From TrEMBL:
Natural source organism: Kribbella aluminosa
Descriptive protein name: NADPH:quinone reductase-like Zn-dependent oxidoreductase
Transmembrane portions of the chain: none
Residue ranges constituting the Enoyl reductase (ER) domain according to the UniProt record: 18-327
SUPFAM superfamilies: GroES-like, NAD(P)-binding Rossmann-fold domains
């Protein structure tokens, strides 16, 4: 059931909410898998915007699920790619040595545990670093286009097309046969074109809602257009799927706009909705098929070693990232900062 007797590991740890300075590299106890769980030797982990939200504890409403005074799980990170180190007694799908990827809370560490149902075998044509930046963002994008009921031939607008979720939303919409327009900043339009977008809009120079174009489906990842702007850019019976939002105040953040969209949708012909990412292994398998067929490719901005996670998060918050960041192995210069906990 296991390939090692190691009992400790190096991990990024936070004891309280705050900025990147709350993160420390420590030696801590290695987790052990429950009956339905898999222990993964982490080769790489992806950095997503959700990790920043959990690190800072904002919006405050998320603390209902993650802990009031500090995160219940002190090790951040969710995207993971690595090899199976051990499996629980009820796990039959994976074996020690399998190369896997998926969602594992606490992935900024040498080892992480997660339920077997949140994993899939790593795409054969991806490195661990590439695979690590797929799960959270690509699953969110897949949920968005699925919730949007995408159909071949539709005109789809992706707002925030150069980021983690957006880079996958563009490719998935194209894979499903849509004509795609991507919205991004000037310096990232080349990336959006390379992802396969048929058209691009520079949001610093042009307003997607003021061009007169109408879209059957809008995937809003940027999280700040008003509902009225989204509706102006939709066809009379079009759908807007809101995947997140950074505005709306410190208590509920972008969730305010999501709930208002859902309520407004009851009174108009247009469909305004949002998603709750399910993070299922079978959806990862759908993504694997698309990746191995060459229809979806991760956009890897750069990699950082584990002891430079704070720097990686600072780069994420600058808005400079093109696609996603991966966290890789530890540097040999590691100096232990804390006793084993």
């Amino acid at each position: 059931m296991a390939s090692t007797t190691t009992t400790t590991m190096r991990a990024i740890v936070q004891d309280r909410y705050g900025d990147a300075d709350v993160l420390q590299l420590r030696q801590i106890a290695r987790p052990e898998p429950a009956a339905d769980e898999v222990l993964i030797h982490v080769h790489a982990a992806g950095l997503d915007r959700g990790t920043w939200h959990v690190m800072t504890g904002t919006p405050y409403l998320l603390r209902l699920g993650f802990g009031f005074r500090g995160p219940r799980n002190p090790v951040p990170g969710r995207d993971v790619a690595g090899t199976v180190e051990a499996v629980g007694a009820a796990v039959t799908k994976f074996s020690v040595g399998d190369e896997v990827y998926g969602v594992a809370p606490g992935s900024f560490a040498e080892y992480a545990v997660t339920r077997a149902g949140k994993l899939a075998r790593k795409p054969a044509n991806l490195s661990f670093e590439q695979a690590a930046v797929v799960p959270v963002s690509a699953l969110t994008a897949l949920d968005a286009v699925t919730t949007g009921r995408i159909e071949a031939g539709q005109h789809v607008l992706v707002i925030g097309a150069s980021g983690g979720v957006g880079s996958y939303a563009v490719q998935l919409a194209k894979a499903f046969g849509a004509e795609v327009t991507g919205v991004a900043g000037t310096s990232k339009l080349d990336l959006v074109r390379a992802l396969g977008a048929d058209h691009v809009i520079d949001y610093t120079r042009d307003d997607f809602a003021g061009r007169g174009n109408r879209y059957d489906l809008i995937i809003d990842i940027a999280g700040n257009p008003t509902l009225s702007r989204l509706r102006r850019a939709l066809t009379p019976t079009g759908t807007a799927v809101i995947t997140g939002g950074e505005d709306g105040g410190s208590f509920s953040g972008g969730m305010n706009r999501q709930f208002r969209a859902l309520a407004l949708s009851l009174f108009v012909r247009q469909r305004l909705t949002f998603i709750v990412n399910k993070e299922r292994g079978r959806d990862l398998e759908r993504l694997t098929a698309l990746i191995e067929a060459g229809k979806v490719t991760p956009s890897l901005d750069r990699t950082y070693p584990l002891d430079q996670v704070p720097d990686a998060i600072r780069r994420l918050t600058t808005g400079e990232v093109r696609g996603k960041i991966a966290i890789t192995g530890l540097e040999e210069k590691f100096v232990e900062r804390a006793e084993v906990t």
